[in-house]
Design goal:
- The chain has 537 residues and is of the alpha/beta class.
- The protein contains 15 helices and 16 strands.
- Helix 6 crosses helix 7, helix 10 runs parallel beside helix 11 and helix 13 crosses helix 14.
- It is extended.
Length: 537
């Protein structure tokens, strides 16, 4: 199986001709607008992909009067009374049997070759999310779908946001940080295996369900492919096109909690989120002082968007109330008592990391990160999309001790493509990159760090701000002094030039006077000589 590095799907090169084998389930959530749904179903009946491999599920999301299937349409109609497209899509998903799930809105008419264009990719690799190109038409929907869709629905506007995203990122192949944004529910197909791994749509979200699910698909290892040959017409503008600012206001209030990749929505320096950006996993049995030093350093670091999982037999502890100092599990009891009410620390019998967390830090016992260590490791990972950053802590004849910052999506992709008995890190290196750094240079030590409380940190920031202001004022003063010196120097240069000119004039005058004096001497000498040569009479 070909391995895609990052999101550079170009290595897959799907063939133009292929033997259809995979079954696709087209899920259409619908609420009212029977006339548009009829056109959408007519468009599906014209698809070039085999009908026997195409399953169509229409989900009536509480329409009054109820929706119906036109005569002769090979589809299933189910009803979902729970409002919302996410709920309707989940109802259709629960009823689907295909190896590929194709989301389709009830006002999007596919051109005849659209599903075939999608399925060409899915026959090439089992971990893809493919999105077609939608054009938005303002044409009044006809009663019957015409044969020539272009003639009927043009002029139409392209999906400007999608086209712009693809163009800015060289088709999403140029190490795009958020290729999952391509997952739009109106025209996207996804491997059912990936959907099963990512889970259904989040029906608690008011808006933004498509993007949030796209993010979870990325976490499950998905590669996102834009397919221009999978074309469709949207009958009328979308709600986002009519009310983009209002929709962004609503969706961003909810997706910020669920998508750590949207760091610009997480501007508060201290607050916690449903899904943290980093989860650190530590051995909670390593001794009270060692565990506390590492955990406290993590919680006090510059990355506040972080949680900690302490793995240990917490559910089996039986605290000795009569002789606590003789309790053989005293260190475990102390760790549990110290952190059981800390909201950013979870005590777990086994490793439990939320599947949407993008980065997992694994820190060996006895090692303490510096205040900015985690932030610097994240910068290394983001610089070139590295899936693993190894931190060399210690090296001896017995081997090496290393911390690891793992990108969850890269490891999920590696598991999909790894060969039997292949080290997972090698597969990660193929689908992303593996980097090594020296722990000492990144602030890792064996000694507990001096922690600054929030008040101390505030005071330090205040002093730093005051010092910065003082230095800025001093800089301005020195700039003024430099300007004054420059003006003075300019005056000196001007005076020097004038003095040089005066000296030159005086030199010329002296030279002229000297020449005149010499001339006079010569004249006087000649006159005297002539007078002496004259004979007296």
């Amino acid at each position: 199986m070909r391995r895609v590095r990052g999101n550079d799907y170009r290595v897959l090169q799907p063939p133009e001709r292929f033997t259809p084998e995979l079954r696709v389930s087209v899920i259409i959530p619908a609420y009212g607008a029977q006339d548009k749904l009829d056109l959408v179903l007519q468009g599906l009946a014209r698809q070039t992909y085999p009908a026997e491999l195409t399953e169509i599920i229409v989900v009536d999301n509480g329409s009054l009067p109820p929706l119906r299937l036109p005569a002769g349409v090979d589809a299933r109609l189910i009803r979902c009374e729970l409002p919302g497209r996410a709920s309707a899509r989940n109802a259709g998903l629960a009823d689907a049997t295909g190896e590929v799930i194709h989301w389709l809105d009830s006002d999007v008419v596919l051109t005849p070759g659209a599903i075939e264009a999608h399925m060409r990719w899915h026959h090439t690799a089992p971990y893809l999310s493919v999105t077609g190109y939608i054009r938005f038409t303002e044409v009044e929907p006809p009663a019957v779908l015409p044969d020539d869709l272009e003639a009927a629905f043009e002029p139409a506007e392209p999906h400007a946001w999608l086209v712009g995203l693809v163009e800015r990122t060289d088709g999403l192949t140029a190490n795009s940080p958020r290729p999952f944004s391509l997952h739009v529910g109106g025209a996207t197909s996804v491997s059912a295996r990936l959907v099963e791994a990512a889970g259904p749509m989040d029906d608690e979200l008011i808006l933004g369900q498509d993007t949030e699910m796209g993010y979870r698909l990325a976490q499950a290892g998905a590669v996102f492919v834009p397919e221009p040959q999978a074309r469709a017409y949207h009958l009328g503008p979308t709600m986002r096109m009519r009310h983009q600012q209002r929709i962004d206001r609503v969706s961003q209030a909810f997706v910020a909690d669920r998508i750590p990749a949207y760091q610009w929505l997480r501007t508060h320096p201290y607050r916690q989120w449903k899904v943290p950006n980093v989860t650190a996993v530590l051995d909670g049995t390593a001794g009270y002082e060692a565990v506390r030093a590492a955990v406290d350093a993590l919680l006090a670091g510059t990355v506040a968007d972080l949680s900690v999982v302490l793995v240990g037999p917490w559910d089996k502890l039986d605290r000795d109330r009569r002789a606590p100092l003789q309790d053989p599990d005293l260190d475990l009891v102390l760790v549990q008592g110290h952190y059981e009410h800390e909201s950013r620390v979870r005590l777990a019998a086994e490793e439990e990391v939320h599947p949407s967390v993008p980065f997992v830090l694994r820190l060996p016992p006895g090692w303490v990160p510096g205040e900015d260590s985690v932030s610097r490791l994240l910068n290394v990972a983001r610089a070139d999309g590295a899936g693993l950053v190894n931190v060399l802590l210690e090296e001896s004849t017995e081997g090496i001790v290393a911390a690891r910052l793992e990108r969850v999506s890269a490891f999920a992709r590696a598991r999909l493509v790894a060969r039997p008995d292949e080290p997972l890190d090698d597969a990660v290196d193929d689908v992303s990159a593996v980097r090594w750094v020296i722990g000492e240079k990144y602030g890792f030590t064996r000694e507990p760090a001096e922690l600054l409380g929030r008040r101390a940190a505030y005071q330090a920031r205040t002093r730093a701000a005051a010092e910065a202001a003082r230095l800025a004022g001093e800089t301005e003063r020195l700039r003024g002094q430099v300007a004054k010196w420059r003006d003075e120097a300019a005056r000196w240069r001007k005076s020097t030039v004038e003095l040089r000119r005066e000296v030159g004039t005086l030199r010329r005058q002296v030279h002229a006077a000297t020449r005149a004096r010499r001339g006079m001497r010569a004249i006087v000498a000649g006159t005297v000589k002539r007078a002496l040569r004259r004979k007296p009479r």
